[in-house]
Inverse folding.
């Protein structure tokens, strides 16, 4: 094999279809969350939108724990759009009321989801943060405001450890069953150059490693190492040569599944993957007898799956 295989240590974790999983963080958290969603896991994906730095992710989880709705005072208007420093631009809108409704509708669902969550999948993207000059607070998104309104700096390993030590202690008190799986995004942040990117990623890796040593409910999945060392050929990258290609995301998803899913979960996943593929099939002749039989077979298999696994009834 012309490949350096990343060995992932055995884990006691066993994610099943009865578990609830929330993903937070960078685009990679979004990718894995969508992979889980596609095969009918119960998953909540990035309720604040894509988040890149550890502080914004940490603050977002604290907000979900406190469950205090956002108010119009947390919004600002720029270039005809109302926006929030805690959210991605997906929540922006032309009126404050519409923006706030989007935010709080999504926030309420996520707060309820956190109450029953079994796993938090957290992906750090970068150690660099933007602090708003006026408030001194780290923002999740600058929303293309002038750079002069922010101070850009790199977090230290100690800062990240301190923030997450407080958060994990709080989570352990309120939700002692919740397990946290951290990863570092394999997506390079090239704005700071190769060295700057590596220093940033190293800061994140050192912080996660320390947290794993400190807390038994903290685990690490090596998505970063798999992409860089196992999938080092450029065919595993998107055209920008920075993001993983679809093939790479599929492979990392496979490694994630092999690491955390039991044989039964893998078997259910395989059945559902085939069901999803069949449901997506678009026939050349939709009125043909052959296609009607195909649809009947899909309906039969769906009933058989639900009979065997009734807890999937609200998802399929």
């Amino acid at each position: 094999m012309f490949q350096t295989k990343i060995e992932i240590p055995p884990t006691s974790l066993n994610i099943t279809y009865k578990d609830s999983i929330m993903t937070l963080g960078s685009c990679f958290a979004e990718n894995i969350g969508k992979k889980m969603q596609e095969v009918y896991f119960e998953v909540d994906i990035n309720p604040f939108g894509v988040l890149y730095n550890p502080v914004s992710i940490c603050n977002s989880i604290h907000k979900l724990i406190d469950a205090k709705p956002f108010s119009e005072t947390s919004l600002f208007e720029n270039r005809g759009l109302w926006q929030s420093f805690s959210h991605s631009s997906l929540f922006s809108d032309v009126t404050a009321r519409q923006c706030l409704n989007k935010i709080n509708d999504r926030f309420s669902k996520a707060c309820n989801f956190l109450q029953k969550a079994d796993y938090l999948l957290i992906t750090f993207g970068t150690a660099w943060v933007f602090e708003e000059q006026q408030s001194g607070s780290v923002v999740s998104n600058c929303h293309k405001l002038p750079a002069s309104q922010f101070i850009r700096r790199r977090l230290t390993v100690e800062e990240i450890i301190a923030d997450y030590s407080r958060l994990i202690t709080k989570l352990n008190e309120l939700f002692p069953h919740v397990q946290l799986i951290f990863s570092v995004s394999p997506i390079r942040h090239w704005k700071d150059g190769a060295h700057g990117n590596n220093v940033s990623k190293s800061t994140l890796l050192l912080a996660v490693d320390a947290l794993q040593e400190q807390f038994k409910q903290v685990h690490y999945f090596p998505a970063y190492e798999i992409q860089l060392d196992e999938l080092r050929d450029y065919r595993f990258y998107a055209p920008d040569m920075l993001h993983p290609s679809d093939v790479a995301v599929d492979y990392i998803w496979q490694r994630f599944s092999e690491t955390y899913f039991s044989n039964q979960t893998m078997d259910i996943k395989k059945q559902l993957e085939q069901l999803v593929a069949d449901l997506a099939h678009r026939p050349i002749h939709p009125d043909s007898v052959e296609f009607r039989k195909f649809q009947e077979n899909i309906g039969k298999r769906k009933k058989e799956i639900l009979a065997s696994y009734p807890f999937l009834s609200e998802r399929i």
Remarks:
- The chain is about 45% helix and 15% strand.
- The CA atoms of residues 72 and 96 lie 7 Å apart.
- Residues 20-262 form a domain with the Rossmann fold fold (CATH 3.40.50.1110).
- The beta strands are 20-25, 42-45, 75-78, 81-84, 119-124, 128-132, 138-139, 150-154, 179-184, 218-220.
